[in-house]
Amino acid sequence: MNYAYPIPGSQVQPEIFTSDVSGVLGSYDKPLNAKIQLKVDYSLLPVPPLISTFSFQITPGGEPQLKVSAPAVDIISGDALRFVIEGGIAGRTYTMTINVIGSAGGVRSDVLTINVLGDGDCDCQIIQPVVNNGLTSPDGSLFVNTGPRLFVSATPPMQARVMDQWYNSITNQVYINVSDGDTSYWVLMSGFTGSAQPSTQTLYYVASTGQTAFPLSVPDMYGNSVHLIPGMTLSVTKGGLRLVPDAGAGVGGYTVNVASSTVNLLWPAGSGEILTVDVYDITTIATGPQGPPGIAGTVFLQEDVLTVTAPNTLSQLSRTPDGFAFILFVEGRPFFAAVPSPAFTYSGTVVTWVSTLYSLQPGNEVVAVYTVGTTPLPLDWWLTLPTTLPPKAGILWNNGGVICVS
Q1: Sheet holding 165-168: strands in order across?
Q2: Domains of the chain
Q3: Mind listing the pLDDT tens digit for each residue in 108-146?
């Protein structure tokens, strides 16, 4: 890096800003690790103050802080203030309010915007991108930026400008900042797909009672988090059931707010329920999570239509579940008997509704789907058909026909 001063950390001439009646000093692009001396000149004001007292206010905060040191009033004119700035977070924009009180009283405040450059940025002057109203492409406005920057970070940089680039240190992918005239966003650059890191990340959240909003920027139960950018896709599973994204009609299971990196459930989660979110990067073909392996032998599924005989009271099952799998569909919505927050319990053919979040009412459509007899299927060979058969036996004829006998 080429410094504009002979000794790193000190300058021959300060960067000078002139105060005027607007109270806006402009902006300054500060290299990340540089210590810069700035000067505010008040001599061109209608009534220049002879500075007696001064103070600084910087927003936002955060570590490492943008620090101000060595403030001093020009001893010759008394109408200029010098100070040194250092530190700050790469890619962050700070607002510095400089308050001065003259010897005759009265407080004056001026605002200076300081942009802290990323570690890979040059220390040249950067001009904010503008729309050239007289120059347009066939389908929109023409944006210009005379000094594109490169950011290196795990999260999308703040206050990005058109044509800035961002190297995602987690996925090893490079993005470019583009604008549609109203908003700006990051787009993956062609050819930079990354290879050292997986492009899929899975997050696991333990829900609280009635929780619907799950910010993915908040660390999950294993300390992992994700900041979403346009183009990423999600697969959301709640309580072991994969949800369908809602297209705006209110019939799906969840929506996604990319700007806040939040998954919003249309139906509240129960206490202790696990929400699993698979996040696929832009270049990933999302095929969905692999399901659990099957069991050896044969699984028989039984489906019963149950009647709600009274509030939260169901008619009995036609058979006894074997405990391998059991789902109740209430008005098409699935409920489970899995701990730690089961919606129902069962013993023999009796089903007991225990959910405190949802209630059953007469007239609700309830379908029970459960497994029975998850054991290897016994096979016997008969030369002649016996007069009596085991319950639910199936007969495979030697000509390939099949008949089921109750």
Answers
A1: 150-153, 165-168, 173-179, 184-188
A2: 15-116 (2.60.40.1220), 130-188 (no CATH), 200-280 (no CATH), 298-375 (no CATH)
A3: 899 999 988 875 444 444 334 444 444 444 444 455 555
> Maximum distance among all alpha carbons in the chain?
120
Chain centroid to Cα 146, Å, comes to 31
Q: What's the pLDDT score for residue 250?
A: 66
Tokens standing for residue 97: 């309010």
Strand partners, 165: 150, 176
H/E segment holding residue 99: strand 93-102
Q: Name the nearest CA neighbour of 272 among 341, 216, 212.
A: 341
Cα distance between residue 362 and residue 312, in whole Å:
9
Q: What is the CA radius of gyration of the chain?
A: 34
Beta bridge partners of 41: 18, 80
Model confidence band, residue 226 (pLDDT cutoffs 50, 70, 90): confident
